[in-house]
Design goal:
The complex is a heterodimer. By secondary structure, chain A is an alpha/beta fold. Chain A has 19 helices and 16 strands. Chain A is globular and about 80 Å long. Chain B has a domain of 138 residues: MetI-like (MetI-like fold, Orthogonal Bundle). Chain B is elongated, with a radius of gyration of 25 Å. Classes of the chains: A alpha/beta, B mainly alpha. The interface between A and B is large, with 43 and 36 residues.
């Protein structure tokens, strides 16, 4: 199965040919540097022969920004086509890398002047991005897939260069349901999820279905924008929600709900939100796209360190961004939080940040779209995954940002103890008892 | 005598306000809840949640303090998503006036045409009857899809909602100009353009102004909802953003500001209406 592995030796390039070209380009830069330092050919040869090219390079790299020189060379002219960008976001902690890159200067560092614009809901963020009012946006990871396939939107080739966060969601129930911790007692409950095409919807459906409830007939699921969820829970319009943070923590903070289960306990390491842009943006403005993606991957790398989380919480809580009390955001990011039942829990990986857009994530999402009837007919799971989830660029930029990208773009994982094999999506869909196929 | 009647009215208004604020104050008095011990848990949640209560509705004093804060610095600009209440109001008023003006440019000439020609009236009537009752917000998804710009869409929604009262009132005003005046104009062999501007327009002006006054009222109602939908800037966005934060005091400040501006707009058009009114 060659398509499941990176096609070149180092795993950073699409094909061996591209790998060779990139390596050749790197060598040109290195050689030029050596030549500049040791103009005398004999001396240069002797130097390299004594210390070895690798050591020499490492020594040089410590005084000369070799990485930057190679990068600049690889980018050719490297000029950013459009430095002033607008990026839309929904005020939730999933958007942390996109938001924090603004106050903490990650965009500026990569030569971009980005305005991050708070947006009222997923449908609006989709339309504003399709309208090109936004150059790129924070989306739910199923959305670029849905947009590309034309499910719930006009089909537009869309791409997802990076995942923003993994985990970080929760099922929150109204305080009055304190005793009903067994999902089997949830018949007739009304739940809210942020959007039809969201991990939240698929995880909630998966969760209740595993407990024997049919999400279409035994409970009611409606799409409610995250900010309105707590207000609705308070007014008893809904019994609970599977929502992004800080909504869950805010419900606890206001004494209206308790955290029933963290989404990481449903699927450890699931993706949630994503950084998305149209294929047109990626192809017509490659340098801008690269700088933007790099800024976001840099920010993500910064956010992975637990020591930085408090500082980030303080940066993104003000009215210009999340507009939440700092303690609420801090509890979400640090993982030391009140659960609404009088306990303080410590779950350091309640939310984590990992930009790698696993193709297997895309395939899982597509299987759930298929399972619940959002997609009709035959689906070429791998092809769609490859076209929308841009793993190659993420791999390269992740290693530049000091993260370790995985060697392959597919991995198996299990959701609530049930194994998922990304090679057999159709069998996976067929294996569920409750489905709409 | 007239002055004292007005004074009485003012006194009664003040009394009602005092009763309302008093009732609000009593209703939101913090209940004598058991003080929670300073535990690790209570530090992580709101004061009400720490003692097992839902967070409470703010008292009038909380609201007053927040309002004062807004009034002290209404025009600050701390980035794209955090601007002062004055700036937000200015955005909303700008959108409303632009949409309203565009609507007037279309509605008044078309209304003239409809009022002067029974044939045009019959031809356009079915369209008007179908389009008039559509909630302007129902146009929003369509506008976003076709106009491809949220700002233009918001203005378009204002345009759509303010066009009908103006159109219908203009048509009605023009159609009910007294026959005698038109006959006099005809006897004097006045050109039709002059007839329109010198006879019909002044005669229909009060009715047209009434239509405009209704329109601006509706436009102001609609802009708040439209901005809650598309976001970005405006007083509707402000209310939405504070809902996001569940900050009732800020929402109340926004509501009060919306009411005051709406009143000012209505007052302005009331003045204009009086200026063009005549007695026969």
């Amino acid at each position: 199965m060659p398509s499941f592995r990176s096609a070149c030796a180092c795993g950073h390039h699409r094909s061996q040919g591209e790998h060779d070209r990139a390596m050749a380009a790197d060598q040109v830069v290195e050689e030029a540097l050596f030549r500049a330092l040791f103009p005398d050919r004999a001396l240069r040869r002797r130097f390299l022969a004594t210390v070895g090219a690798g050591t020499a390079l490492a020594a040089l790299a410590s005084v000369f920004p070799l990485g930057a020189a190679k990068e600049a060379f690889a980018q050719g002219a490297g000029k950013i086509e459009k430095p002033k960008l607008k990026v839309g976001f929904i005020p939730i902690t999933c958007a942390t890398p996109i938001i924090m890159a603004h106050p903490m200067g990650f965009y500026a560092k990569h030569g971009l002047d980005v305005e991050v614009v708070k947006t009222a809901g997923w449908a609006v963020i989709r339309d504003k991005t399709l309208n090109k009012e936004y150059d790129a946006a924070h989306m739910l990871s199923p959305m670029p897939l849905a947009i590309t396939l034309g499910a719930g939107a006009t089909p537009v080739p869309y791409t997802m260069p990076a995942v923003e966060n993994i985990n970080g969601q929760a099922i929150t129930l109204a305080i009055k349901h304190k005793e009903k911790r067994d999902p089997k007692t949830w018949k007739g409950f009304k739940f809210a999820v942020p959007f039809d095409y969201s991990m939240h919807n698929y995880l909630l459906r998966y969760y209740v279905a595993e407990h024997g409830l049919d999400p279409d007939t035994d409970i009611q699921i409606r799409a409610v924008p995250p900010p309105e969820m707590v207000a609705n829970l308070r007014a008893d319009n809904i019994d609970g929600f599977l929502a992004p943070d800080p909504v869950n923590q805010r419900a606890v903070y206001d004494g209206v709900g308790f955290i029933h289960t963290l989404s990481k306990d449903i699927w450890e390491g699931h993706p949630c939100c994503a950084f998305a842009a149209s294929k047109e943006f990626v192809t017509t403005m490659p340098n801008t796209y690269r700088a933007l993606l790099k800024a976001i991957i840099d920010a993500t790398a910064y956010a992975t360190k637990p020591d930085h989380r408090k500082e980030i919480a303080a940066a993104i809580a003000p009215p210009n961004y999340l507009n939440q009390p700092v303690t609420v955001v801090e509890q979400v990011l640090t993982g030391t939080f009140a659960d609404g039942l009088g306990n303080v829990r410590t779950v350091p990986d309640r939310i984590a940040f990992d930009p790698f857009p696993w193709h297997s994530f895309a395939v899982w999402i597509l299987t759930q779209m298929k399972r619940w009837g959002q997609l009709k007919g035959e689906v070429d799971y791998q092809k769609v995954a490859r076209e929308v989830f841009l793993a190659t660029d993420a791999t390269r930029l992740m290693s530049e940002a000091g993260l370790t990208p995985p060697k392959s773009t597919y991995k198996s994982f299990s959701v609530m103890g049930k194994a998922f094999d990304p090679v057999k999506p159709a069998e996976y869909v067929a294996s569920f008892a409750i489905k709409r196929v | 005598m007239a002055l004292s009647a007005r004074l009485k009215g003012l006194l009664l208004t003040a009394l009602l306000l005092a009763v309302f604020v008093g009732a609000w104050h009593l209703a939101t008095l913090p209940k004598a809840a058991p003080q929670a011990a300073e535990s690790e848990y209570s530090k992580l949640v709101g004061a009400q949640a720490a003692v097992g209560q839902k967070s409470a509705f703010p008292t009038p004093a909380d609201f007053g303090a927040k309002l004062l804060e807004h009034l002290k610095n209404p025009f600050y600009d701390k980035g794209a998503n955090d601007k002062g209440i004055g700036v937000q109001l200015a955005y909303s008023i700008g959108r409303v006036l632009l949409g309203f003006l565009l609507a007037a440019l279309v509605a008044v000439p078309v209304g003239f045409l409809i009022g002067m020609s029974p044939l045009v009236y019959r031809a356009l009537d079915p369209f008007i009857q179908v389009l008039k009752p559509i909630s302007p917000l129902a146009w929003m998804p369509l506008a976003l899809f076709t106009l491809k710009d949220s700002n233009v869409s918001a203005v378009f929604v204002i345009f759509v909602c303010s066009i009908w009262p103006m159109l219908i009132n203009t048509a009605f005003g023009v159609a009910s100009v007294r026959r005698e005046w038109l006959n006099v104009a005809r006897t004097l062999e006045v050109s039709s353009l002059r007839k329109a501007f010198a006879v019909i327009l002044p005669a229909a002006a009060p009715t047209i102004m009434t239509g405009m006054r209704i329109s601006i009222g509706i436009a102001w109602l609609v802009i708040v909802a439209a901005e809650m939908l598309v976001g970005g800037t405006g007083i509707g966005y402000f209310v939405w953003n504070e809902w996001n934060n569940l900050s009732i005091t800020n929402i109340l400040s926004g509501i009060l500001a919306i009411g005051l501006v709406g009143m000012a707009l209505d007052f302005l058009f009331g003045r204009l209406q009086r200026a063009v009114t005549y007695t026969e």
